[in-house]
Amino acid sequence: MERSGRLDRGDGVELAWAHLPGRGPCVVFLPGFNSDMAGSKATALRDWCARRGRSMLRLDYSGHGASGGAFTDGAIGRWMADALVLIDRLVEQPMLLVGSSMGGWIALLIAQRRPGRVAALVGIAAAPDFTELLLWHGLTPAEQAALLATGRREMPSQYGEPYVITSGLIEDGRDHLVLGGPIAITCPVRLLQGQRDDDVPWRHALMLAERLDSEDVEVTLVKDGDHRLSRPADLALLCRTVAALLGENGGEA
């Protein structure tokens, strides 16, 4: 049975988590920007792991979901550290990291910092370096100047209310860029990417695949897939992908 709770990361901010005991490697789901562990991809994997007796950890970064802290206080390095606090406290087995959008970037950073513990990695519309390549470069010079002057900017979202990006998010992102050269990750990597993704261009997945040191990298392009990849067929593809990496026979129950 899945257990859940909140863990103080050391400064009074509590991080929400849900852990399903079972056989390893432990599937660790890393949500996207302004998303959380209650989304359809995380819960589909949780249900799949429960049926198969597999271990899984779901989590919310600070400022996300059920965790404490303010969203605008966060940044890539902070959210990576949040995930590592929970991983180091709650996971004893090797890990299969599954990162959605920004979570794909965080998965890459974790794999570099805990290389001996990561058995494989799955990116779903993985968005490494998105703060620079997609957010910052998507602004006009005037908009960039305004962001630096005020420290924040509201961005429209097709998924709900506008969200705020801060100058701190952009600046911290530059300390964690990975696509500028080889990425020292050697475990198997699977990248799932929709070609109708309006947030992360599908060629981003090819760039990432090229940068990875691993020779065991596969990119799956879903021609009619959007950024979320949350339709039943997309979720089935995700479960099949995880199943194959774990040596299971398909993604069905």
What sort of overall outline do the alpha carbons produce when their principal axes are compared?
globular
Order of helices and strands: EEEHEHEHEHHEEHEHEH
What structural class do the secondary elements suggest?
alpha/beta
Portion of residues within helices: 25-40%
Unreliable residue runs: none
If classified by CATH, what would the architecture be? 3-Layer(aba) Sandwich
Task: Specify Rg, calculated over alpha carbons.
Answer: 17 Å
Instruction: Give the oligomer, counting copies of the same chain as homo and different chains as hetero.
Output: single chain
Largest sheet: 8 strands, mixed
Protein described:
There is one protein chain. The chain is α/β, with parallel strands linked by helices and 253 residues long. It has eight helices and ten strands. It has one domain: Alpha/Beta hydrolase fold, catalytic domain (Rossmann fold, 3-Layer(aba) Sandwich). Strands 1-2-4-3-5-6-9-10 form an eight-stranded mixed β-sheet, sandwiched between helices. Strands 7-8 form a two-stranded antiparallel sheet. Helix 2 packs across helix 3. It is globular. The model has no long low-confidence stretch (mean pLDDT 95).
